[in-house]
Amino acid sequence: MASNRSESSQLEREDSHNTPPTPDNPSLLITVAPDDILLSINENGYLTERDLVSLAGTSRSTLLLFQEPIKTIKMTKLLLRFVTQSNYAEAQHIVDIDPNLMFQHVRFVYPNGNIEMTSPLKYAFRIYDTYMWKMFLEKIQSDLESLKRFLSQAHERKHLDLDPLHNEYTEYKALYDQWLEEEIGDQELDEAWLKLGAKQYELLVRGALHMLMELCREGNYWKTDSKFDISLPPKAESCRAHNYFDGKYIPFSSLVSPTKLGKQHTLTRGSAESGALPTSQGRPRRNGAEYFVINSWEHDAKMFRDLHEKRNLELITQISLLEQSINDEARITPY
Questions:
Q1: Contact 1, 8 (CB under 8 A)
Q2: What one-character-per-residue DSSP string does 18-29 give?
């Protein structure tokens, strides 16, 4: 599994020491243990992992009672981590064992410090990850109640706001035009370029990572007429960038490092077939001695916007189809 610094970093810090549990560990919804017991303990309807471990240790009977809820917390946290990392193989392995985990809620700490109870499925909706939620959906196709839960969580979704990324590209374009007119210098434009890279890190690496993986996906898929309908999801190990200056390929984990993206380089691709390009400048070199895909970032800006709209539409369409299917089932199923 390729490492990255997505929003999963907060989960990793919480999980770094599984024993003993701490109050900062995620909480569990009451649906994973008898409602009457949990509600009598916590009026808010939630128990922390520490609460459950403490209760489990009071007697042999409570130990047996809470073993499964504690296991559910840990497995849900792990599944959520794989969703944040767009690690489809590992996520599928977990839902193959227990599809119900996609619906379970744990406490999640976002990079900005906000805390929210969310599920792996809701997080996949949040970051527009069609590959992930489609894989989840395939596991429950024959279970009407699970399909209803899927639909319910889809309606509760809170999407990641990607407009700041689109706006950053627009702002860079305005500065680039000023640079062409020699109204601003190289340094100011280069600083704006790295600012764009910082926004890539903030909203893609720590958010919709799968979209950045599309930018780096090996093969000629990042093109103007792309429909973004490839059946297989991108894999970190096959996402790369080509360093045109030394002819070497750079692994994805290095590209998205917080010490590099937005600090040393910004990622661009344009219509290149060989992957993304990490560069410290978004402008042609004045001496013309080094290769650079001129205005490739304009192509990227359009592609990110198209990809955003495509993934959003895919979910809206799926919701409509599910609603129709469930309504049809209700009409033919006797009460």
A1: no
A2: -SS--TTSPEEE
